[in-house]
Amino acid sequence: MKKRIIYIGIFIISVVGLFIVQYQYLRIGLSLAKVQFEQKVENTGNELKKELVNENQLSFLIAESFSDRNYFSLSRDSLQDASRYFLNDLIEKKLNENKIKTDFSYHLFSKDSLINLASPTEFEDDESSIKYPVILEGYLPDVLKKELTLQLEFQDLNAYFLSQLKGLLIPGLLFLAIIIFVVIWMLRLFFWQRNLITITNDFINNLTHELKTPVFSIGIATKILEKDLNEKQKPILFQIRKQVSRLNNHIEQVLGLASLESKEIIELKKVDLRPELQEWCEDFKMLADLENFQFKYDLEPGKYMIKTALFHFENAINNLLDNAKKYSEDPEILLKAYTGKNRLFISIIDNGKGISNKEKRHIFKKFYRASEGNLHRTKGYGLGLSYVKEIVKRHRGRIKVLSEQNEGTEITILIPLNE
């Protein structure tokens, strides 16, 4: 439960961090957009000054609309209306040329307010309006004998700036939403898998504990029957005991693996492993003599001081030896143990069919078994090597596999020494 809260906390902090980073990028983008906009408006203002600095049709029309002359034989109001629309078209053209496509208004006026030409569309005077004055020079001020200002006005520029940044903003928000969705999905999947593993392990534990009772009963029954058997029946009883022992080993292995997967802490004690390893090798040598296959071992003299859980470590070594026997037609197995670089090396070498490069990536996965086509010629449950890897990991060690198909396999366990 604590881990779940930690994961959710990290996720929330990460999302908030992403939003903050996105917000900072947006602020920087808005600042840059504002600077670019001001540069474009300044360019537009300079171009308008150049258009109106000399006498032309528009500047002459504006001058006539505010003078006492009557060149066009029209009323002053009519001339000002015409000037208003023609000037509006010029300003719109210059803004478009500078890639400013937003609503605007303008106001041409003199300081004494005797000259006042307003845009066809006017904005309400509020705080969101931004004004850019352009001081006119040349023909118009000279003819009208007044200092003239052409003031460009824009409103609600934040919306305009955001529209300019949509190429950055929309993909950013989209990718942020995708990241949040994927992380939530992964967290849900992770917790679902953890719950599934817990349920599966509980089921396995209950099932294996239920199996242990009849296995134990069969073992006692074989001991009772042994007294009344003749020589012909004893081999049959021996086979029953052998299979019961094998089934009991499988049950213990499944229980051990389930306990390790539930992250149960195993106690490591400092021991000299060499005497124990020699005893395990002697036991396996007796099995080799009984089943008529070849097994040798070579233990370097000296102490093998490591921190270990003997029960689990013995099971791991026996699993590797059992695999070496099972996957060989005529087994020839060698176990070597030696120390070096502050580590204990235990190598198990066989003359079996070997492991392909493709299979090497999967052999330590739970329930995975190397196959030949659709056949599994060797009996088992695909738990042994998964168990071995977990045990080696708990001992802070490593496991290496050297193998070529049809050339045998060498599996080496490396465990840190604790001298």
TrEMBL record:
<keyword id="KW-0812">Transmembrane</keyword>
<dbReference type="Pfam" id="PF02518">
    <property type="entry name" value="HATPase_c"/>
</dbReference>
<dbReference type="InterPro" id="IPR050351">
    <property type="entry name" value="BphY/WalK/GraS-like"/>
</dbReference>
<protein>
    <recommendedName>
        <fullName>histidine kinase</fullName>
        <ecNumber>2.7.13.3</ecNumber>
    </recommendedName>
</protein>
<keyword id="KW-0597">Phosphoprotein</keyword>
<dbReference type="GO" id="GO:0000155">
    <property type="term" value="F:phosphorelay sensor kinase activity"/>
</dbReference>
<keyword id="KW-0418">Kinase</keyword>
<feature type="domain" description="Histidine kinase">
    <location>
        <begin position="206"/>
        <end position="419"/>
    </location>
</feature>
<dbReference type="InterPro" id="IPR003594">
    <property type="entry name" value="HATPase_dom"/>
</dbReference>
<dbReference type="Pfam" id="PF00512">
    <property type="entry name" value="HisKA"/>
</dbReference>
<dbReference type="InterPro" id="IPR003661">
    <property type="entry name" value="HisK_dim/P_dom"/>
</dbReference>
<dbReference type="GO" id="GO:0016036">
    <property type="term" value="P:cellular response to phosphate starvation"/>
</dbReference>
<keyword id="KW-1133">Transmembrane helix</keyword>
<keyword id="KW-0472">Membrane</keyword>
<feature type="transmembrane region" description="Helical">
    <location>
        <begin position="168"/>
        <end position="191"/>
    </location>
</feature>
<dbReference type="GO" id="GO:0005886">
    <property type="term" value="C:plasma membrane"/>
</dbReference>
<dbReference type="InterPro" id="IPR036890">
    <property type="entry name" value="HATPase_C_sf"/>
</dbReference>
<keyword id="KW-0902">Two-component regulatory system</keyword>
<dbReference type="InterPro" id="IPR005467">
    <property type="entry name" value="His_kinase_dom"/>
</dbReference>
<keyword id="KW-0808">Transferase</keyword>
<dbReference type="InterPro" id="IPR036097">
    <property type="entry name" value="HisK_dim/P_sf"/>
</dbReference>
<dbReference type="InterPro" id="IPR004358">
    <property type="entry name" value="Sig_transdc_His_kin-like_C"/>
</dbReference>
<dbReference type="GO" id="GO:0004721">
    <property type="term" value="F:phosphoprotein phosphatase activity"/>
</dbReference>
<feature type="transmembrane region" description="Helical">
    <location>
        <begin position="6"/>
        <end position="26"/>
    </location>
</feature>
